Amino acid sequence: MQENEVLVKVENLSKKFCKDLKTSLWYGVKDLFSNVLGNETANPDELRPKEFWAVKDINFELRRGECLGLIGHNGAGKSTLLKILNGLINPDQGKVTMKGRVCALIELGAGFNPILTGRENIYNNGAVLGFSKNEIDSKVEEIIDFAEIREFIDMPVQNYSSGMKVRLGFAVAAQMEPDVLIIDEVLAVGDLAFRMKCYNHLMKVMSQNVAIILVSHSVIDIMRLCNRVTVLERGKSVFLGNVEKGVGIYNNLANKESKDSSIISAKILSDSEDNDFQTGDNITFQVDINSDKRIKKARILFHLEYSNMRLSSISSKYSEFNFDIEPGVNSFNFHLKNVPFLVGGYLGRFELYGEYLKDYIASANFVTFQIVGPAVDYSGFGICHTIKLEHEFTLNKI
After folding, report:
1. pTM exceeding the 0.85 threshold for the entire prediction
2. Strand partners, 55
3. Distance between CA 102 and CA 84 in Å, rounded?
4. CB contact at 8 A, 52 and 24
5. In the structure, what pLDDT confidence band is assigned to residue 186 with cuts at 50, 70 and 90?
6. Sign (positive/negative) of CA torsion 148, 152, 157, 162?
7. Cα dihedral angle (208, 146, 113, 136), rounded to 10 degrees?
8. Does residue 380 surpass a pLDDT of 80?
9. How far is residue 41's CA from residue 64's CA, in Å, rounded to a whole number?
10. CB-neighbour burial class of residue 43 (10 A; exposed 0-12, middle 13-18, buried 19+)
């Protein structure tokens, strides 16, 4: 076994679908008869009416001991790509080369026969992965212990809760020691203790040269486990590379088409064209309000978000910034000082109210900025994740 061996190679992978079933069936019949008669079929590079690219021109390699994160918002093409990687559907263009045993945990209880017991499903799944009965015998107790469902293991799976199915599915996928492990969102289900158990086990199997493909909407999961990420948008890979840059791009994607309000707009005053900053920098926002009337005792709220998580909300009322909006253009600056945020992409948004919060008037466009340094280590060594806390280690004398 070579440590740097490429286990997964994806080359120019593309898959298209049709938006309605009737048209899709018609295209299938036409293509079938064209093949039988030896005529030319439709150009695979071109879309016919009602067709769209679910994934288009995807390329990446994955080596032993690496974890690749697939991130993208709903409809980006993640599920289609995983189904191609798992052999459930065939691509229209390109190819996938995979070596070794491949185990996929894509849907809750996927691959389980509901009328069989948990124990019987362990043997079924192991056989599908190519393990002998003796090999499964040597692993079955570890799988049951890991899943923490020993008292229910001889009950039909159809009576399991969704959490129990995830526990058993993950235990089978992880404990069978595949060469390639594909995981889709299942870490989002289950209690905190079991999720941490899964994280620790995945770190362990990575050190044993298992290649992992992880799909998750949680950037914390991605940052904790992945060496690289690929960011998908509308079926295309818009980024492939280091985790922190990819997470920043992912965080900003949903709001890149936000338009300025006709009443209130915001921008960052920066020398960097991409709004790149370092941890500890000061960041200044310019907010412009174009009003057709006077607004007494106006109130501004600033919301700061990171990966769909609100980090902070700041009100001008409680910052002792009191002002009246006059007819015409009003402008002011908002300063964030010594920002404690670590590497990643962040979103800021301003909202305009009257004297009270019930007096909502307008929201500004999202403003995005990147923290690009200092370097962080997401594998658990050094400073990582979102916030830099002032800290100190001291040694106790014994």
Report:
1. no
2. 15
3. 13
4. no
5. low
6. negative
7. 60
8. no
9. 39
10. exposed
Q: Is the pLDDT of residue 262 over 70?
A: no
Question: How is residue 386 written in tokens?
Answer: 């979102």
**Geometric angle at alpha carbon 138, from 135 and 139, rounded to 5°:** 90
pLDDT at 355 over 50: yes
The whole-angstrom separation of Cα 240 and Cα 375 is 18
β-pair type (6-18, 51-63): antiparallel
pLDDT for 356 beyond 90: no
Q: What is the CA radius of gyration of the chain?
A: 26
Higher pLDDT, 18 or 119: 119
- Between the alpha carbon of residue 204 and those of residues 212, 250, 287, 370, 394, the distances in Å are 12, 27, 48, 31, 29
**Phi and psi torsions of 250, nearest 5°:** -60, -45
- Distance (Å) of CA 351 to CA 85, 160, 178, 266, 314: 44, 46, 50, 10, 10
Q: Which long-range contacts (CB under 8 A, 24 or more apart) does 380-387 make?
A: 380/203, 380/224, 383/342, 384/223, 384/342, 385/220, 385/223, 385/342, 386/306, 386/311, 386/341, 386/342, 386/344, 387/340, 387/341, 387/342
- At which residue do the structure tokens 């370092």 appear? 278
Listing DSSP states for 179-203 in one string gives SEEEEESGGGSS-HHHHHHHHHHHH
How many CB atoms sit inside 10 A of residue 376's CB? 20
pLDDT for position 24:
72
**Region 78-100 average pLDDT:** 87
59 and 237 in contact (C-beta within 8 Å)? yes
**pLDDT score, position 258:** 46
HSE on the CB side for 350, CA within 13 Å? Answer: 25
Q: Kindly list the distances between the CA atom of residue 108 and the CA atoms of 103, 124, 136, 172, 198, in Å, as whole numbers in the listed order.
A: 14, 16, 22, 13, 15
The predicted-structure confidence for 119-173, as pLDDT tens digits, reads as follows 998 898 888 777 788 888 888 998 898 888 899 999 998 888 877 887 888 888 7
Which of 321, 286, 280, 281 is CA-nearest to residue 300?
321
Q: Which long-range contacts (CB under 8 A, 24 or more apart) does 83-89 make?
A: 84/13, 84/15, 84/55, 85/8, 85/10, 85/182, 85/213, 86/182, 89/15
Average pLDDT, the chain: 81
